Input
Amino acid sequence: MAGTALRGRLTWQVAKVSAVTAETASVRTITLEVPDWPGHRAGQHLDIRLTDEDGYVAERSYSIASAPGEPVAITVERLDDGEVSPYLTAELRAGDDLELRGPIGGYFVWEPGDGGPLLLLAGGSGIVPLRSILRHRERTGSTVPVRLLYSSRTLDDVIYRAEFDMAASGVEVVHTLTRHQPPGWAGYARRVDAALLAEVAWPAAGTPLAYVCGPTNFVEAVSQALVQGGYPPQRVKTERFGATGGT
Amino acid sequence: MSPISRGFRRRRQDPAGSADRVPPGQYLTKDFPVLSAGPTPHTALDRWSFSIGRGGQQKTWSWAEFRALPSQDVTVDIHCVTRWSKLDTAWQGVSVDTLLDLAGHDGQFAMAHCDGGYTTNLPVADLTGGKAWVAYAYDGQPLAPEHGGPARLLVPHLYFWKSAKWVRSLELRDTNEPGFWENYGYHIYGDPWREQRYAGD
Amino acid sequence: MEAVDGNAIGGLLLEVFGTEMTDAPTICASCGDARQVAELVVYLRGPGTVVRCRSCGNVLMVFVTIHDRTCVDLMGLASLG
Output
C-alpha cells in the first residue's frame, strides 16, 4: 500500500479554557469551550498542541473526562519530569487558548446499546475515559450493571473520589491502593493480579464487556489475566497510556 | 497559524557559556530520553558478536574478544533530531578506527545493522579519525538495554539517530544507501551544525 | 519509552485519511495477524511514529511529519480498513 502525504492542520481548532479545577494534589480537570465541537462519544480522547514563542511544538493526547452532552473536559495528571503536564496543571488558566484536535476514537468507546455487564479496570489516570463511560451510562438511564476496579497508589491519588463514593445504582466500585493505605483500610492493598480479578470480575460465562485503561504494564497484565480467565479477546478493550500515562 | 500558548516554554537549561555548544533549534536537557522504533532487544552476551566488513569478508569479535580490544573513555555532546541536546556525556568503547584497522577496510560508505532490524548509513570518513566508537559503557556503568546496550554506535558529530543502538555490524559498501530514518525523509548525512534534519535541508 | 497502542495514532490517522480509523481492521503482511488499529503496538516521540504487529513485531506503518507534511508508509500492512 502506497504512502500518502497531506498538509497538516485539517482538524486543529482553538478552544478557550473555561475552568481549571483540582481533583487531587497533582491532577487537574480542564473544562473547555470548543466553538466547533461536533459532540463526542464516551471513551474518546482529544489531542492538544502547545506552541512556544520560538515555534517549538509539543503534542499530547488526553482522554475526555465528561460525558456526551456535558461541556468538554480533560483530566491531566502532572508528571514531574513531563514537558506538557506541568504546563497544563500549573500554568494554564481560564481564558487561555488551547489548540486541540478531536474527538478521536472509534474502538475504546461505549454506548448503552453495547450492553454488558461492564467491567471497567483503571490504573491511575486510566480512570479518565472510564469516568466518561460511567457518566454517560447514568445520563442515559442505562441499567447495564457495572463493576469498576480502580488501582491507585494511595487514597489521596484517587481521582473523582467523591463521585465514586456516591456511585449510582447498579455500579459497584472496588478500589485497590498499591503503595499506602489509610489506617483501618479494609480494601485491597496490592496490584491487580489474577486472584484479585477472580474475586471482582464478572464471570466469563456471561457476556461481560471489559475496558482496561492505564499505564502499558497495567493494561498488559490485566488484559492477559482476563483472557486467561476466559474472557474472549474481542470483549476486552484496551487503551495504553505508556509508562507514565503521558507527560 | 497556531496560537502561541501563553506561558508555555519547552524545557531548556542554558548554563552560562553553553550557547556555542548547542546547535541551532536544539534545547538542553539533563535527562537522557529513551526513544525507539521498536521493543528493546535483550541479546545475551554469550550470543553477541560484532562484525565489520562486507559479504564473505568480515572480521567478527565475540563479546570477550571485543572487550579485550583497546578502549577509550570519551566525553562528548550529543544532539537528537527531536531537538534535545545533552552535554558532557561520558562513554567507554572501542574506536571504529581500531576496528577498521583490524578488519582492513574497503568501502567508502557503511550501513550499521542492529538487533531489532534498525539501520543507518554513514560515510566511512565520518567513522574514522577519532570521530566514532562502538560504546558499551555510559557514565561509568555497562550500557543499559534501553540506551542501546550491550553496545551502540556513537557518532556524536552527527544527529543521534546515526548513533545506532544495539549495533551488531558495520557493513562496508561502495554506495551510500539510506537506512531506516533516511528512507522516511531524514537527511542522508545529518550534521546538526548545519541543521540537516530532513532530506533537502 | 514504553510502547502505547493504536488509540494514540487516532489523531494522525484522522488527519491523513480524513476519517476515524482506530477501529479499522488491519492485516499484517508478514504474519497475517488480524486486529483493529487500536490494538497495534505504537512507538511515539521518536523521529517518527512506528506501528508494529502485536503478533510478529514487524513494522506495519511509519508516520513522519516533516515541516507541515505528515507522510505515512503503510507497506507492512496487507490491508487497512
About this structure: The first helix of chain B runs from residue 63 to 67.
